[in-house]
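Our preliminary data section would be incomplete without showing what the modeling component actually yields. Below, a chain of 485 amino acids is followed by its predicted structure, encoded as tokens that our downstream tools consume directly.
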Amino acid sequence: MLNLKLISKILGALLWIEGLLLFNCLLVSLWYRSVDTLPFVWSILITVGAGLLFRLLGRNADNLLGRRDAYFVVTVAWILFTLFGTLPFMISGYIHSFTDAFFEAMSGFTTTGATIIDYPERLPKGLLYWRSLTQWIGGLGIVFFTIAILPSIVGGSVKVFAAEATGPIKSKLHPRLSTSAKSIWIVYLVLTVACILSYKLCGMGWFDAFNYSMTSTATGGFATESGSIMTFHSPAEEYVCTLFCFLSGVNFTLMYASAVGMDVKRLLKNSEFRFYTVMVLSFALFIAVELVYRNHYDIEHAFRSAIFQVVSFITTTGLFSDDAGKWPHVTWVVLAACMFFGGCSGSTSGGIKSIRGVMLLKVVRNEFRQILHPNAVLPLKIDGINIPQAKRVTLLGFIGLYLFLTLFCAFTMIAFGIDNTNAITITLSSLGNVGPTLGMEIGPTMSWAQLPGFAKWICSFLMLVGRLELFTVLVLFTPAFWKEN
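Predicted structure:
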């Protein structure tokens, strides 16, 4: 069965890392002389203490992590990180309900960006920084971060990577996974630093620049102001945000390989990147035309609002520069499609991932050809790589399960009185780790505070399931997972 000693050892190490992240926020709190200094001290002591307890339970553990252990440890690590991530909110008293605190922390780590806080500007600096930091760490993955900095802690790291990585095709830059992880984190760091400097050049203060750059590159969407990017009334900042969110929705492995090899053609020839780019441009153009003719925007404003919102939705960031709730309803359908597809695999974005969209189109094309040539053997190739039959079956299983979860959870919310549009888009938003929703009761610029408690727990579950791409979490609920052999 499960190697509980090794799992405890890994969880202990992960909690120590969370303690270090909390210490980071303590320093910010001390720098700004915020009122949340003592809550962070207590949060660090509790988290590090729990980590020590797990390490003691895991002493003398071997380093042999099985596939079953990997799926279990990844799921439990995300839940534990979220549980201890609620401490600063609860101890400080700025969030009174455990349900709300858990929802906020889960939304942070999964980079969903949905919030129950109506006015984040009223929070002290330390808590604001903690919200942004949860998204930045969760962007590439909690365990993946550990593999990059402390590869020896996670035994069987290849299996763990498979359980946490996004997309149906897992690509590595180097035979050693820890080396690949470091390379990908270098891309992430470079994007983050460049984003900070760009925001600063556009007029943001350093604190806002750090926070917005973390949530932009993590495609998370938490903001330091209730008005998000719209607060600053700066077209330059909106374009900067659009650019970095778009780049963060591109496969990081592909970006690294293209940058190191100085080979932009490699990026432009990639099927998934082209599919992603075409979606962004075509959807943005359609919405811009709608805004010009129906809402009487000038052309530049229409294009800026459309491209910002499309990129924000398709990369599942959730920042906003305009109130899409006041746009023509046909644009909501386009934005819902963005929620569904998401960005590229191996990026920080959510959704089903553009690579699956490419695979679906090729499967449909092959089916048409098969009708005309019943005896033909038709390979499914993406960028010259043949996709085996097993991955095609997994694709259909994934899409089917994604749609089933969406319909079941949306039906449940409608049955409990949430309006139809909100119920469907809340479900899509949570499962795709998007953040904003579309509807009259809860619009794209509003918090989710008014949702009933049960709906918040459903959404928290969907956020976790969506971030770990369904199977990693749901396999734990199958009888086969708990059988001895």
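Residues 1-165 form one domain. The chain has a mean pLDDT of 87. Preliminary results of this kind motivate Aim 1 of the renewal.
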